[in-house]
From TrEMBL:
Keyword Manganese: yes
Domain NAF: 314-338
Catalytic activity: L-threonyl-[protein] + ATP = O-phospho-L-threonyl-[protein] + ADP + H(+); L-seryl-[protein] + ATP = O-phospho-L-seryl-[protein] + ADP + H(+)
Residues given in the record as ATP binding sites: 50
SMART domains per UniProt: S_TKc
Gene3D superfamilies: Kinase associated domain 1, KA1, Phosphorylase Kinase, domain 1, Transferase(Phosphotransferase) domain 1
Identification of the protein by name: non-specific serine/threonine protein kinase
CDD domains reported for this sequence: CIPK_C (cd12195), STKc_SnRK3 (cd14663)
Domain of life of the organism encoding this protein: Eukaryota
EC number: 2.7.11.1
Name of a matching Pfam family: Pkinase
Native source organism of the sequence: Physcomitrium patens (Spreading-leaved earth moss)
Amino acid sequence: MTTATPSIPATNVERTRVGKYDLGKTLGEGTFAKVKVAKHIDTGHTVAIKILDKDKILKHKMVEQIKREISTMKLVKHPYVVQLLEVMASRTKIYIVLEYVTGGELFNKIAQQGRLSEDDARKYFQQLIDAVDYCHSRQVFHRDLKPENLLLDAKGSLKISDFGLSALPQQFRADGLLHTTCGTPNYVAPEVIMDKGYSGATADLWSCGVILYVLMAGYLPFEEPTIMALYKKIYRAQFSWPPWFPSGARKLISKILDPNPRTRISAAEIYKNDWFKKGYTPAQFDREADVNLDDVNAIFSGSQEHIVVERKESKPVTMNAFELISLSSGLNLSSLFETKEIPEKEDTRFTSKKSAKEIISSIEEAAKPLGFNVQKRDYKMKLQGDKLGRKGHLSVSTEVFEVAPSLYMVELQKNSGDTLEYNHFYKNLSKGLKDIVWKADPLPACEQK
Ligand code: ADE
């Protein structure tokens, strides 16, 4: 007699695994990349993974730019910049593993609450200048600074994301200036629009000035219905102040939104500005942190070393509390209502804190020497005895269920064959599984009689 099978959804949940990460939902999608949330299978650490399609990169001759982007992100280690953790590649994709930032976009805050208070705007601007100036000191320029690229962490601090258009010194021409127009027009400096060659640092500071204006005004300083009209306003730095705009901030922004990059205020001068200085404390961090570019070089050299595969895998079925209680002999509620004898057990359960994969392979290794042929499918196994027993061949099925994060329950059930032979098999199998079992059912009832 077999005890009732719990009502467990029949379908297994599918998930995609890349290297040691399980991919989750999409956080954002652009022309060349998709960003997904992911979880490390051993540590449970959550990350964001930027996924690039190798074909698209090759087609658009962007290999060098992407390599630069990745190297750039590795060079930058600052508390207000999204950290690049590692890089992986499959045959068709590049995976950039990034620090996961949980507070959403700073832009959303403005969209939801409108303009920020003077103190809040100043705090984010101080963090922005701190991070941008640090990047500039490492010859790294962002060139696409805008509120959408400014994320907030769990503590509400700024995290600059997406150095996709940043450039390292290689991109300088002989005149020592950057060439390539890019970026979002509303935040772009006049010299970038005119493409007369520009310094990445002063162009980024212009964008910081536009950002500060947006944080305090709640709208853009330069906004026109046509791109030409917008460019005209930007060249001339033509904008107006809303009446509430504090004079200290007006003075500073006027010095940043100077259309002439040569006379525009520098970061060093911003640090000395009275409005900026109020309550400013520079971020504390290790400026000498080591940077290793081996993984970046390996994935672009065609080496197999960092090649990973993207696999679709099914996840063990998850059990809810009711299903668990109905299974557990220790908490067997049926005994509260029923007085009949416990039936002879032909199914057995144990729990394990090992991963589902380890559990499956341990069962396989333990069952084979006992003369069992093993068939596996996802998180289910069928073990078929090769010896003819009293009631034919012994056949046992197993399934792994996730009962809590990192806690699995394994159910073994006799499909056919003699129960005593099954009990004997279970006893021997248990010996082979002693390293993975956390808590096990007592031996099947008939063995105890
Ligand atoms: N969206 C884009 N990049 C992200 C990140 N690193 N963390 C959270 N959301 C993101």
